[in-house]
Amino acid sequence: xxxxxxxxxxxxxxxxxxxxxxxxxxxxxxxxxxxxxxxxxxxxxxxxxxxxxxxxxxxxxxxxxxxxxxxxxxxxxxxxxxxxxxxxxxxxxxxxxxxxxxxxxxxxxxxxxxxxxxxxxxxxxxxxxxxxxxxxxxxxxxxxxxxxxxxxxxxxxxxxxxxxxxxxxxxxxxxxxxxxxxxxxxxxxxxxxxxxxxxxxxxxxxxxxxxxxxxxxxxxxxxxxxxxxxxxxxxxxxxxxxxxxxxxxxxxxxxxxxxxxxxxxxxxxxxxxxxxxxxxxxxxxxxxxxxxxxxxxxxxxxxxxxxxxxxxxxxxxxxxxxxxxxxxxxxxxxxxxxxxxxxxxxxxxxxxxxxxxxxxxxxxxxxxxxxxxxxxxxxxxxxxxxxxxxxxxxxxxxxxxxxxxxxxxxxxxxxxxxxxxxxxxxxxxxxxxxxxxxxxxxxxxxxxxxxxxxxxxxxxxxxxxxxxxxxxxxxxxxxxxxxxxxxxxxxxxxxxxxxxxxxxxxxxxxxxxxxxxxxxxxxxxxxxxxxxxxxxxxxxxxxxxxxxxxxxxxxxxxxxxxxxxxxxxxxxxxxxxxxxxxxxxxxxxxxxxxxxxxxxxxxxx
Length: 605
Fold this sequence. Notes:
The protein is an alpha+beta fold. Helix content is 29%, strand content 23%. It contains 18 helices and 24 strands. It has an 8-stranded mixed β-sheet with strand order 6-9-10-24-23-22-19-12, sandwiched between helices. Helix 13 runs parallel beside helix 14 (496-505). The longest helix is centred in the first third of the chain and has 23 residues, at 136-158. It is globular and about 90 Å long.
């Protein structure tokens, strides 16, 4: 017989009744029924009920053991009585009568429970992550992550992509989020950087003649943390040569649609080839976001023209100053009291906005200050233009265009949640396309790159030389699912002359480009194919498929929101000897000062 097991704890069925077996695992639960002890024995594969009565030599040992101790049980498989069959377990028709027991490892008193799915403080969960991962949901999430990655790899190789590895120690980049720096022992005063993305290396692979690259790539960005962001994360990084934007879409859609269909648990998924293409400007207008959740049926409209001359002086003043008025419908709210609308206004103020105006309509009668001052005839005209009914309310977001769009987008989500309008049981994908190449930086009073500086401008050199920079669009695209950005990508700027000109518009000299991006620009001078790619985030994909709200729930050993590994006690102070070897010393920050805000501009994908 095998030293530790003949079967796993998820393998035994009624066909094994009468067999002598050996199982090993953790003591999950114990139930004492007066002289008969029932133990749920758990391993990676499942759970088996162990029975020990007064005739079993294992009874006394099991009775003294704490849960989560590791044991090996020898015993006989017996069929459960019909009334005790557990139809929720694959092993629910049988139980194992314990004939002998070997204790492999005794557990101390637990700092947190493993059995059950109780909510527990995150700090405790992360400090004792090895216990947290034994819990059913967490264990299932990490297995799902492995299965998703395997499926992604298979689907990419089936399309002719080959997996290549790129360096982890590389050079620091002056663009993007803050780098993690690694001091060099051999080169005093110099530092490596951990890659924010394999952006330049994957482009170098295209220049080197490798036509279709992919990698499950680790990436590192020293930036503020939130539910869908981590200091260390993984992405399905890929690049293709001799492709247009549409070629990239046709390569990625079957991969993502296929993975989501495989692991969605019956949810509907946008079919490959049918992902909507939404221009950035349209997304900001209709959804107030470049990450629109298409499960939400509400559409934002611009009604600025209706308030150029209006009895509602506040909006007329905003519009006269170049501002915008955006509206979000609240369908079938005739049964909602004024408190519902006032609560929405208070919510907007709590989010840092000036407020959220509203109009009520019940049985065709308008209510609220905006309707009263704007006038019933004008309100009727506005409602008819929007196609709204006699019992539909309307929320108003007014201000500078970016502020109005941001408030309208947040309100669109809030209204849909409050009215239970968001479609469930589906994954809805879309592409956001036609991003602006440049934007005006109000703080620095200059033109700067809007997104990825290495994207090819639409119109190429001619556009750079003849168009207003703020009107130039880039071959830049994001893929979004249920309101989450899964990746950004682009058709790359592979020509040195266009790259120099693109950076010149943003205020960079040719010498600065040569100094900061020497590897890429030099490679392009020796013949570079047109190429493009993208990099969907693994963590966010698994988070969506697992139905979780934070990527920490699908990462085996994540950090907390302060960037600390509580289990391994990292980051940690190192010895003076280590610092001397690296030719560096540490300087404590002044007490009472806030850390500098981390830039979150994107470099690469």
